[in-house]
Amino acid sequence: MQSKLQCWRSLKFPVIGIRSNAYFISRIYAAMTLYRNSQKRIYLDEAIYFVTFNTRGGLPNFKEEIFCQLFVDNLKICKQLKQFELYAFNLLYNHAHLLLKPGRKYNVSKIIQNLKMNTSRNINKVMGYETHEGANTYSRLHVGKYRKLFIKKYRRNTQLIPQFRWQKSFHDHVIRNETDFINHYRYTIDNHLKHDLPENWKFVSINHSFIDKSFYGS
Between vectors from CA 102 to CA 6 and to CA 200, what angle results, nearest 5°? Predict the structure, then answer.
């Protein structure tokens, strides 16, 4: 596996996917003008987004490794179903960062909505809460095995832990140029160090094979 420094040095910016800085600034300005009295999010074709979303109340739900693995499983399935490119992610105790490029069919809001709903639903099922939130991904993710691990760890006192919730909405930033991409890529894969998590933190994209490799070179 390449070191992070090697990944940074071998990073290749795509010819298709990010256009000039001036192009995106003009598109963003036009969208902001169009929606200046609206709460609508800005969507741009072929744009790459840096996305952040948090647990409700900033609770450190992802101190539990079982929940972390469920998040990664949901992210992998969401990537397949919603047909987007994923360049980096990092899951921290109370928030997550993604660097992604939506495909033509699903915009960034649809992607994050799907990921958050299904993650919430499956975490709550593992804890034994009845919930109808999200699509039916039980058979895809084999939630039953995580339920068994959770019961083994917490015995029958599983519902002493409150139901999991994400904070509403999410923050997004449109990547404007190569420098902006590299800065946000580095920020994402190193973010666990900022929060005093182990250097070998498992739930970061450089440790997972389903990440798109077009930025890494051969």
Answer: 35
Question: What integer pLDDT is reported at residue 140 of this predicted model?
Answer: 65
Domain count, the chain: 1
| Residue carrying structure tokens 């939630």 | 143
Q: Write down the pTM of the prediction.
A: 0.79
User: Which residues are paired to 95 by β-bridges?
Assistant: 54
**Which CA distances in Å does 203 have to 2, 61, 66, 70, 191?**
17, 14, 11, 11, 11
- What is the domain-level CATH number for residue 162? 3.30.70.1290
Q: Which domain holds residue 158?
A: 4-207
Q: What is the largest CA-CA distance in the chain?
A: 58
Predicted pLDDT of residue 168: 94
Divide the 218 residues of the chain into consecutive groups of 10 and give the mean pLDDT of each group.
Answer: 44 46 53 45 88 96 96 96 96 97 95 95 89 54 87 76 92 93 95 94 95 57
Antiparallel, parallel or unpaired: β 171-174 and 49-54: antiparallel
Domain assignment present for 213: no
CB 164 within 8 A of CB 67: yes
Note the pLDDT of residue 156: 67
